Amino acid sequence: METTNKLPIRYLLGAFLACVLMLPVESIAQRLPHRGGNGRAAPAHRSAPARQAPSRQAPSRTKQATRQVPSRQKNTRQAPSHNNSRPTINGGSRKSNNRNSTSNHHTTPSRGGHNKVNVSNNKRGDVNINIDNSRHTVVRSNRVAYTRPPYRYGGRGFYCYHPYYYHPFRPFYWGPVWHPWGYFVASLATTAIIISIENQKYHYDQGVYYVESNGGYTVVQAPVGATIKVLPEGSQTVTVNETTNNYYYGGTYYEKSDGGYTVVPPTAGTVVENLPEGAEETRVGDQTYVKYGETYYQPVQVDGKNMYEVVEVKQE
Amino acid sequence: MINKYLLLALFIPFVMFAQNTKVDSIAVLVTDRMSDVIGDLTSCSFKMEASMDETGQYGLEKRFTSYQVYLKGPDRLLVQARGDKSHKGYWYNGEHLVYYSYRENNYSVIAAPDSTLTAIEKIHNDYGIEFPAADFFFPAITDDILENFPVFVYLGSKYINGKECFYLMADNDKMNFQVWVSNDAYTLPMKFSITYKDREGTPQYNATFSEWNLNPDLPDVLFDFIPPPDAGQIAILPMQDE
What we know:
The structure holds two protein chains of two kinds.
Chain A: H1 2-28, H2 42-46, H3 63-67, E1 151-153, E2 156-159, E3 184-185, E4 193-197, E5 200-205, E6 208-213, E7 216-220, E8 227-228, E9 236-241, E10 244-249, E11 252-257, E12 260-264, E13 271-272, E14 280-284, E15 287-292, E16 295-302, E17 305-310, E18 312-315
Chain B: H1 2-17, E1 22-23, H2 25-39, E2 43-55, E3 60-72, E4 76-83, E5 87-92, E6 96-101, E7 106-111, H3 116-127, H4 141-148, E8 151-160, E9 163-171, E10 175-182, E11 189-196, E12 204-214, E13 232-233, E14 235-236
Parallel strand pairs in B: 1-8, 7-13
Antiparallel strand pairs in B: 2-3, 2-12, 3-4, 4-5, 5-6, 6-7, 8-9, 9-10, 10-11, 11-12
């Protein structure tokens, strides 16, 4: 008697269980339970180059069952206008028949752009027109803390003490004896002296450094560590911080040393009025910097005067 | 004993709910419809007002930008952007993209792929240049949302600038994406909002569309850049490798 009494209860529970198990699918139309259920390869649909849109013609689009839109007959939308002769702005919308596959979708980090979905970690460089980005900016840090956030671009922070203030770059010339990098002369003045730095012989004359090449002499970047006894005429004193000054001439920085004045790398935050020929304006995101060698300069304004500040570029 | 198994079985569907995954069919349907309409356009233009939270000296600061966008065929794009920090334009003609700064009167030329969407993606990757509302012009936007957001729901009918809209939301651990799509024949995006949950201060990007013009007759010359007098061409620095 007990057994016969329990059977109807089991049947009822079984029926109830079946109802409950079906309930979520019907009530909130979750799409994830469909993942993997359809063996069709989504990439074949997603990669369609033209708007043939096979996916849109697919009456078997599985989501219709749960989306309860029986009237959505994609095959009725095979309008003649969907051919290749009518160039649409994006080739037509695409939908995968099987939205289960993850292999052909763009990745989540691609939405890093604040209004963009499809961003991947492509390698840079193949559309770069004239920038050698492989070199790193060589700038000495300043011990004074920055009071403003950096300008960020490409995973780097461009730190400055003064705000960005654009003014067009005009190269400056330090007189007839000064020459930009790459300038070739057949002979040097008798006042030229020889300076050896790390087994490289340089010829120095009035603020310009040369190396021998092709039977003559070519102007090169001032070698860090080179020491001269007298600063070139026209040198300016520039402030590095409260306790340190540098001397600036032709894009080169000098520091007072025991033997005279030694070439040093630019120090972040140093402000100069002029930059030489050879520097070039470079767009960095939405700002324009002036790049001279490996150093970035930010256009700034100090006391109403257009100047350039040495930028410290940090990887972030 | 049988009753225990039954109780365990009864909990199975609710455990699946606990994964916090929910996709509304209405949200999918509306996005599909919107994507269909945009994908069927041969040209269009629209305006967009956007605001973005950016880290400032004392906290997040609002930056506003107004865009005017023109698209034609698969390989023409013109964007005019005027904002707090810049006034610039992008001209794309199927071969090059020119970035021109009105304030600085200089421009950079970037070789670009031969389709607008590919160009947008590549230039964004290489140079970080953002194109307004690019999301909505990628043909598989619905798939992308479904792929990246476990939650994609319809939150009812709302009004944006007096127009009745479908209010949709997509959400994942890192981002919350909300969009208002017009409830009319065209089902075009009227507004969207992105909240970056994984960034300090959870900054937001908000944008409102206006003046949608569908299939206008736009002359090709509109998409060719002609340097203004005294404009200088300058180099452009690519973004670094990750």
